[in-house]
Design brief:
The structure is a single chain. The chain is mostly helical and about 90 residues long. Helices cover about 20% and strands about 0% of the residues. It is built from 2 helices and no strands. The two termini are about 25 Å apart. This is Tautomerase family protein.
């Protein structure tokens, strides 16, 4: 969470201490996903991050936060165990 908060502070100019986070874990029976949707491999360590931002953020800020300003790998990313890896698809607008 600290990495996401730091990225939001840097790219979205989020003020210090403007942090509101909710973490919710689901049981296996309450969490369904496709392990190969959009040709991206995922497993039971899947982490979903949802960011709610108002419409004052421009496309450049969104691309900077989501990594859309650089090429993204396809397929499974080799991050550290449990590290969420964002692979944007489509438009950042």
């Amino acid at each position: 969470m600290a990495g996401i908060y730091a990225a939001m502070r840097e790219t979205f100019a989020v003020p210090e201490n403007d942090l509101f986070t909710v973490i919710h874990e689901h049981t296996d029976s309450a969490f369904a996903y496709d392990p190969a949707y959009l040709e991206t491999s995922r497993d039971d360590d899947l982490v979903v991050i949802q960011i709610t931002a108002n419409d004052t953020r421009d496309t450049g800020q969104k691309r900077a936060l989501y990594g859309g300003d650089r090429p993204q790998p396809r397929g499974r990313s080799e991050g550290a165990a449990g590290e969420p890896v964002h692979q944007p698809r489509g438009s950042c607008t």
